Amino acid sequence: MIVELGHFALILALMIASVQAVIPLVGAHKGWRGWMALAGPAATAQFLCVAASFAALTYAFVTSDFSLRLVTLNSHTAKPMLYKISGVWGNHEGSMLLWVLILALFGASAHWFGQGLPERLRARVLSVQAMIGVAFLAFILFTSNPFLRLGVPPFDGQDLNPLLQDPGLAFHPPFLYLGYVGLSMAFSFAVAALIEGRVDAAWARWVRPWTLAAWMFLTVGIALGSWWAYYELGWGGFWFWDPVENASFMPWLIAAALLHSAIVVEKREALKSWTILLAILAFGFSLIGTFIVRSGVITSVHAFANDPERGIFILAILGVFIGGALTLFAARAGSMEAKGVFAVVSRESALVLNNVLLAVAAFVVFVGTLWPLIAELALDRKLSVGAPFFNQAFTPFMVILAAILPLGAIIPWKRARVGRSVKALYPALILALALGALAFVVGTGQSALAPIGVALGSWLIAGAAVEIWQRAGRTPARLARLPRADWGKAMAHSGLGVTFIGIACLMAWDVEDIRVARVGEPYEVAGYEITLDGVEQVEGPNYVSTLATIRMARNGREVAILHPEKRVYPVAGMPTTEAAISNGVWRDLYLVIGDEQADGGWTVRTYIKPFANWIWAGAIVMGLGGLVSLTDRRYRVAAGARRAPAVAAPAE
User: Fold this and answer.
1) Is pLDDT above 90 for 611?
2) Which position among 54, 105, 384, 642 has the lowest Cβ density within 10 Å, counted as fewest Cβ atoms?
3) How far apart are CA 219 and CA 175, in angstroms?
């Protein structure tokens, strides 16, 4: 009965979303306040209905209701409770329901926290948000219904993909969706502004916190996925340029550009058309990511579905919304005249360059991701675009971005002198060059990657510190009184610097060793003495594990005892590799146990990963920077730069 109520709640949500998509929009056009006022309660009701539907599906997974087809395909009675819950979104249908739940949450939040918005703009934003909800609710109900029953329920389920039975991946999709779907708010604000024909500083101030929240969640989601790939897949890497990884990275780049562009609109009322275009493209790339994951056009460990019919439906949604928004953008482009005038050397110009670099970098990733598919369809040729292409084509843009970021953040608006601004950054520049030289000496000149990465990362961190010091008037007492948005920006830029250092050092100084190890016979890798003490069979809650015990010592002192595993999940019939990692500030010791050999030895892979944890530490600092900025009082107060015009009385 609960399952049927969940299905009914989803249908009811579609009906409410349909009303919300039409009535407030007409009311805003006609100036009918009663019709516009319907948008808020409808958004709340839609969210409550989708939440009830999601709760019903979660209940079915928790209670192992195998009369539900989705539970049978993705759960098992022996599965731990955490993975029963995460199994709700560990599949196509359930993940789409989570997608729509977050979409409805953002729409309802725009009503709950958007009381300072002009009445017409709020009604239009909520209507556009509801249109997206209608499309995806229809997609779920007509092609991906999670509430289908089985005529003859089995006694047990087929279990969740073992690769997904991991805490990191249990939390990765919700954070990623909060970022993906959160960009729908920027899209809704952009389309609402285009309908209204007005983009100004107040609009930019309203759209920034929604974009910042989406970017923050996307940062955390990408970091969780990277961390999971690092320790779960057993290959020792943190990023593979997998198409699905790229699908989340492209919106992150565009959202970062949108954040910086909106600042120019808010401060100087320039770059209006470009900012609106970025808001459309950011959500467009989110929809492209949804298409890539669910259409079957690519094969990936991350992919949820391979049904072409579903892919065509999502492609139609993409075409209607992004195509419609771009058409409206073309029609309204003339009305978005920029007011602010600025010199070539100014903060505005620096932010324009920042935007160009981020947008071109996203385009490079886009081309590299889809080019194999385009080549196969158009030229009937199978091509592979891997890490070498992305590393060579993408990296130069990030190097230039890191080089200009501290300078762009400190130079004045409208007109600036480079010499005066650079002078303030001399200490940061000297520190960055010194640390880069130190990295060159430590690495004995083997690679230029580590020195360049360390120098750029240090430049970003020290540059952020100089900016904060300058904003405080070089007075320690004033540091605590700085706006939280300033601290948040400094943290985000510093976090990017930490990640730069981690990636560069890991890629330059990574040590890998693969050999057949025998019990009791030590061997040496990069100064570490490694001994395989033994291998045993262990039974887990829903798997059987081959568990190794390996000791690592350095200079005669024991450093770590690690237990890498090779698991087999009997229900799914699938093996997984569980790496054993000794985490450290300066390095990770990373071990993987392989198969037993005919002579009695075991294949062991050993990695020494310098600065690996700096990659995710930097992502955490970036996410915290976004959170600190969101707590700034200026984001919680209505923009107030314009008031809603008087509206006509309701029609009798």
Assistant:
1) yes
2) 384
3) 9
